[in-house]
Amino acid sequence: MFAIALFEARQRLKLLSTWVYFFGFLALTMLWMAAAGGFFKGASVTFGSQLIDSPRSLMFTTSFLGSIGVIVIAAMMGRSVQQDFEYDMQHFFFSAPIKKHQYMFGRFLGAYLTLAVIFTSILLGAWLGSFIPGIDPERLAHAEPIAYVIPYLVVILPNIFIFGAVFFILAALTRRMLPVYISSVVMLVGYMVAPGLARDLDYKTFAALIDPFGTTAVIRLTEYWPIIERNTRLFLPEGVYLLNRVIWAGAALAGLLVGYWRFHFIATSDSGHGKRTSTGEGEVPQHLSQTSANTQEKPDFQARSLGWLLLRSSWLNLRETTKNIYFLVIVLAGVMMMGASTIDLGSMWGTNTYPVTYQVLEVVSNTFALFMMVITTFYAGELIWREREAHMGQMLDALPVPSWLPLLAKLFALIGLQALLMLIVMLTGMAVQIFQGYFLLEPGLYLYHLFLVQMPGYALTAVLAIALQVIINQRYLAYFAMIVYYIISVTAAGIGLDNPMLIYGNLPSFTYSAMNGYGHFLIRERWYEAYWAGAALLLIVLSLLFWARGTNDGWRQRLQLARHALTAPVLATIAVGVLIFAGTGGVLFYNQYVADCFKSAYHKETEKADYERKYKQYAVLPQPRITDVKLNIELWPEKRALIAKGRYILQNKTALPVTDVIISQDNSVAQYHVRFSQEVRNGLQDSDLGFYSYKLSKPLAPGAQLAMDFEISYSPQGIFGLGRDTPVVGNGTFFNNGIMPHIGYQQDWELSDARDRKKHNLVARERMLPRDDPAGLANNFTGNDADWITFDATVGTSADQTAIAPGMLVKDWTSKGRRYFHYKVDQPMLNMYAVQSARYLVKRDWWQDVGIELYYHPGHEYNLERMDKGIKESLDYYTRNFGPYQHKLVRIVEFPRYAQFAQSYPNTIPYSESVGFIAKVNDKNPKDLDYPFYVTAHEVAHQWWGHQLVGGDTRGGTVLSETLAEYSALMVMKKNFGASKMRRFLHYDLDQYLLGRALERKKELPLAENENQNYIQYRKGSLAMYQLQDMLGEAKINGALKEILNQYGRKSGPYPSVTVLVDALRKITPDDQAYLIDDLFNHIVLYENHATSATARKLNDGRYEVSFAVSAAKVRAGEQGEEKDVALKDWIDIGVDDKDGNSLLRERKLIAQKDNRYTVIVNGRPAKAGIDPDNKLIDRKPDDNMINVELQAQ
Questions:
Q1: Res 510 pLDDT > 50
Q2: Which of 592, 595, 815, 1115 falls between 20 and 30 A from 1108, CA-CA?
Q3: Rounded distance, CA 76 to CA 164, Å?
Q4: CA terminus-to-terminus distance, the chain
């Protein structure tokens, strides 16, 4: 056995393909490390704050690149045994004096050893990659050798065994390679389904176990590791990862042994069924002779029949590909994968959306995309090599047909296969909708999207897959070349190649919206499809020139034949391809670079860096502030254009005269003009960076005012509808004041990420000023060019649309076929406004004397009642507890899902169609959270926290808006849905906080010091405030907040800092709970609580006595996650639940030691008991707080 294994390994190590795989993976890994290490200036491949060669980063690099290598494992393992049957060598081995186990396991071990050598290239590439000159030294951990060895031992070697065993046995039993490739596709099901399941808190562990590659298990085991652990802690196979490896390795071993038992160590036919029947030399087999006798038609190879022959040949290739059991298996696997991907359809907070067609289409088609790429790659090889493997190639090559006919027949068959799979995607999507009780199927949208939007891209891939098989003329090397292509395609944008003109088949991505359909994006898509179709035509011609016929398959011979094949029709076809490619390429190039309609991510970064380098010096110039805004905006949705004319009243609120006015204007503006109420002299006029300066003829004295009139326009530019995106779309325009002129230098336009700044040679800077810094408190967090303004806007739009802006509608009218709407805010507001326009329906209601308006897209009525109720309940709670609502109207306005958020402007809440409008909330399902109600409550709360009380632009300033809005919404949620729903909601908040701190790009800060970090101000803020109200009482918290609002509401600079909130809360906190304020606001504190045991016995009166032990600990973390233990003397809940999760007991205990035991009496049958049962504390492992109760006999 070992002799055979060594022989097999030696032979394979002599093959060119083995070393192509080795050096291919070596190069890919080094490229990956270079991109992640900042070698490429335009690269955005990043591990966040993780160092690129840290133990955890090496695990993921190995897992990702190793998973791509599954095709190499399939080729190597399958061929190790299948090749004997392909070349009729099995008779020699089966009659040799070797035993079955020696043959089988010798072949397996030989292939395993070869693969083990090949995949050392990944770790070697990672190590060599860390020495590439130009990599940022600050991104390197200089890990110990063991950090490279562990991924090889726990990822590479187990995966070679797991997948290798499956592939080897399939090849041995079927004696074909196609089932091997099919099985590799099937194995993708678990790999692709697992990440989706892992988004649900209840399925995280299950998802980690079903992934055969183990990647999801790695994520699950390490997801909450803080930065310091991610950069230093060695990955050891334990917990869910070890269980995953045991399960899959055990299954693979069982499969290997069963396959060994089923394998017949005797000579059979190629098919493996029955014995070969012999015929004499030159004798025609009986069945073939009879078929020939029954055939009446004579073959017709005349030119007039070639078209019909092409169709028949294409159909024959397609039929032979699809009529076997293997295709059925791959279809079933794809259907299972797509079905599983819809389990959490559009899930937010564990609640799915309705299976509307575009949502189902997006999920199933995106899920199937990787499947399709793998199938296209495998079947391209199967089609090209089918006749040669069946030893019929030379016979068919001798037929008097042109070479283009079999080439095109196989290409059309492959594209037909793709189309058939698209049809299966369509039927699966419809089946999902029907199964979920949704019957608005929209077959037209399915057909259009799958066959006219997605199919062209797949067809381009099919051309490339066929071309590589033909040109390389080595099946497995062509497969590997396709892998390289896929990797480059996926990572192109990350390494700075984000121009769709650079990578073959790369088409610009876009989002379908129910409101705006495909919008203007399809025109751009069609031009790129034509561009790459020209390249595809050239690839087809190249494939024709190198088409192998007969025995002339050497490169020199093929080059000679290719030169002779350059006939007039071929040259004409080349000319057509070049004309299409160059012509469309010229149009695209003009739009991108001459009309300046395309900017790469690196170009945008460079603009930000240049803006800071050139104009940071002007940040200290005293500038006037906007006090009044009056706008007249004309929207042309059909043209995607707008003209905005406006007047700002500027006031000098500084103690110094203003001599120069600086204007920062979005540089995508098409036209920009400005005029002042006094004479000015133009200074800097940098339209590329959007920086303009104007010298006043008379300095503006402190307190004096100045009027500024402006006119700006946005239009697509470019030609043939290929211009840049603008703020306007056909239906569902939504833009904010960011497109309007800003006064002064804008620090928000600077690069903020430390690595981006270093890449562009900018000095490091803090993200925000200290929380009580006077300069920061001079501005509010929304901007530095205004305090409180008066606002008036008139918006014109198409006759069939409604335009919305903040304020009350003063008047609407129609003129010259257009509709106009005049809005005015009746009191001062922040300089924060948005404009929307679409074909809306509107639902109206009242809460007391406050009007409620819900503007929505027809068909999106699902959750209007929930939003309406959310507004009413919020207005009721907030006015009773915090103070009056300042407006006479609340409106929600839907916008397309090009962005996925809701945001509160004065009395108006733009709300994405993907956030709540199609949520499917089942009130009877305890897992579902009514997030349309919650998001509405949060945004309405901003009318108090953000639009009445606004914090300064310093660390922690957003706590006064975002954290308090979260708290307010939680209280409304608790009032309406009870504590059980809150427990689940808080669990999601805890999960997102722990994930956020693990992915922090710079440093984690305490809540009161956060630098606009969402996982802190939202998630941790939510947990902190909920715990405080639970400990101190809701009424006391609300009283403190009302007092802050009364004292600091509508206050101009200096604006309040988070200190006012911390001090107010400290004032109402008892001495024995004073630790809460520091722990929650001023430090990063985590708990490590868990239940260790629990027993119960039934008492004579029917109640239960529950005895359980818990462990408690508290740690304080630093900015990078470094931890130290702190003394514990905290009030913590203990609890007992029944089997349905209902509370049987909650008691608060003062815990001052690690190990504690409690005995309690409960009225119901206990199922779980433990510590912090409702996840109110920030616990790194919340899932072990409760433990199953063991019921003892009486």
A1: yes
A2: 1115
A3: 8
A4: 61
